[in-house]
Task: inverse folding
């Protein structure tokens, strides 16, 4: 027997309509380049977004056409997040930190027809414009700069359009967005998100045991909107009707703290490298900022060090540790304490919070070790493989051969994990970062996290260096806090009671800074390159 329930498509216009009708009075706040604040309400966002959709169709956009964005986090980018998909188009967010050649490859590979770009990012566009074929370029006058003669003002696009716009028919499996993942080998690979996947992901991450976002929240996603749907924060905030705050280019710790305070933000999100200086500043000057006591920090993209989670806890703030991937829309697990947490010791509790969390509903996981499926015993390591309704089943027209899916349809994350009996996933490494010493794996992430708990250590990355006898041995690259002095021996002593002897780094290098990827993660590849001849040095 078939159910007697409607076949109602899961598409983004439904979320926009819901927000426009029910949450019109809610605010969207954007910090401008000069740090002044742009404020408007959901009602205006709703009207402008529909105008954008209408304007794009009037400009000739056809269903499935890609519209690139090269923008900071702000109201106009949020308009594009909904306006492009609601026109039947595909929003392709371009990562403004990439090299011009990569941007050219990505925009060309995706076949972007139109581009929406911030005026202060035009110099980046100039770096690759002659290699791509944008038909029309709409400039957001974010900084108030004049629009170049061969481009158009984003506001004119909206002025020439109507909000009385009727949505085109959209199949829920149609693409609504695209994002390229950097990948360490081969060309960047494109993921095409579907309306259905984004809607289901939005519902799942807003649940109480995920981000738990409500219309009474105020969210500040520091995670860039050009990266993996900003972890679902923008669509989640619009669906919930939560006050939404954008930091624009101002993501240094002082600016972030100012904004957290002035808007009384209750949820913020970003990679650990954003929060390291924030938590340090909060510790140094605990009374300086009058933050919302309910403020929660969603931390992901790379492992949140346990020391950071403890520090936030001492300061009275909860950390939600989340794991995901561009290929997963992107959230897969969230670190919410299960009821069993209450009977744990503090040490066990923090060890659990430092894990990446339990899978969201509909995210099916399995761990595959050298000998097949690995048990959920919290010890056996294997590759994490996933399935689910917001997980990619292929890349968009890949140029290189792809080995990321198993024959039985699981996506291979390339992350090496353990899963404990309660279902908490712990990322021990990415396959390419694991250190294989004498045939046994050493988790670089575990050693890094321990190092970052040292009071004199600001940042640490542990990489493999070639070794004649053991094949690979760990090398710790450490950035000390200002004025701190440490010896190699004291670093090893600090780790000695935390790990087996053979896990301890053979060598320690004190360096000025750890290079970052375009999304703010530690770029271990660059360190491996720098120290590739280390053993023979
Ligand atoms: P990139 O490869 O450019 O970093 P993604 O943002 O898609 O692209 O990165 C996904 C990867 O980031 C995951 O496979 C995992 O290795 C890492 N990652 C994400 N969140 C976490 C986390 N909370 N802890 C540890 N690693 C994480």
Result:
């Amino acid at each position: 027997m078939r159910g007697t329930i409607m076949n109602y498509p899961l598409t983004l216009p439904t979320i926009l309509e819901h927000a426009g009708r029910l949450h019109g009075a809610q605010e969207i706040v954007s910090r401008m380049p000069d740090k002044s604040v742009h404020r408007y309400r959901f009602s205006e966002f709703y009207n402008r977004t529909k105008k954008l959709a209408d304007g794009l169709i009037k400009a000739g956009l056809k269903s499935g056409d890609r519209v690139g964005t090269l923008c900071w986090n702000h109201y106009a980018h949020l308009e594009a997040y909904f306006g492009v998909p609601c026109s039947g188009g595909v929003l392709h967010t371009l990562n403004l930190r990439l090299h011009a050649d990569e941007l050219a490859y990505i925009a060309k590979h995706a076949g972007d027809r139109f581009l929406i770009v911030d005026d202060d990012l035009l110099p980046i566009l100039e770096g690759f414009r002659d290699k791509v074929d944008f038909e029309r370029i709409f400039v957001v006058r974010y900084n108030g700069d004049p629009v170049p003669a061969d481009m158009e003002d984003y506001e004119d696009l909206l002025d020439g359009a109507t909000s009385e716009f009727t949505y085109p028919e959209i199949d829920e499996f149609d693409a609504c967005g695209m994002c390229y993942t950097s990948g360490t080998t081969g060309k960047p690979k494109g993921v095409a998100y579907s309306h259905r996947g984004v809607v289901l992901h939005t519902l799942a991450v807003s649940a109480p045991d995920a981000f738990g976002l409500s219309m009474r929240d105020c969210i500040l996603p520091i995670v860039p909107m050009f990266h993996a749907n900003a972890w679902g924060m923008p669509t989640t905030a619009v669906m919930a009707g939560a006050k939404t705050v954008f930091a624009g280019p101002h993501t240094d710790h002082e600016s972030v703290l100012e904004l957290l305070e002035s808007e009384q933000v209750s949820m913020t999100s970003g990679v650990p490298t954003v929060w390291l200086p924030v938590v340090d500043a909060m510790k140094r000057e605990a009374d300086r900022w009058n933050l919302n006591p309910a403020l929660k920090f969603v931390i992901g993209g790379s492992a949140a060090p346990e020391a950071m989670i403890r520090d936030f806890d001492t300061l009275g703030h909860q950390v939600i540790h989340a794991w995901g991937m561009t290929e997963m829309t992107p959230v897969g697990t969230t670190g919410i304490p299960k009821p069993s947490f209450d009977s744990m010791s503090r040490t066990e509790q923090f060890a659990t919070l430092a894990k990446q969390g339990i899978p969201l509903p509909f995210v099916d996981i399995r761990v595959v070790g050298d000998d097949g499926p690995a048990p959920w015993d919290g010890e056996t390591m294997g590759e994490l493989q996933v399935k689910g309704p917001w997980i990619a089943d292929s890349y968009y027209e890949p140029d290189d051969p792809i080995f990321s899916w198993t024959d039985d349809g699981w996506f291979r994350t390339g992350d090496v994990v353990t899963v404990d009996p309660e279902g908490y996933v712990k990322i021990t490494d990415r396959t390419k970062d694991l250190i294989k010493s004498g045939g046994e794996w050493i988790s670089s992430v575990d050693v890094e996290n321990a190092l970052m708990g040292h009071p004199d250590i600001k940042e640490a990355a542990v990489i493999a260096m070639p070794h004649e006898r053991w094949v690979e041995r760990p090398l710790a690259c450490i950035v000390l806090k200002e004025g701190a002095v440490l010896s190699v021996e004291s670093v090893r002593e600090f780790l000695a009671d935390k790990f087996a002897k053979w896990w301890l780094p053979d060598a320690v290098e004190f360096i000025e800074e750890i290079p970052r990827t375009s999304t703010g993660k530690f770029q271990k590849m660059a360190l491996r390159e720098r120290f590739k001849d280390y053993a023979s040095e």
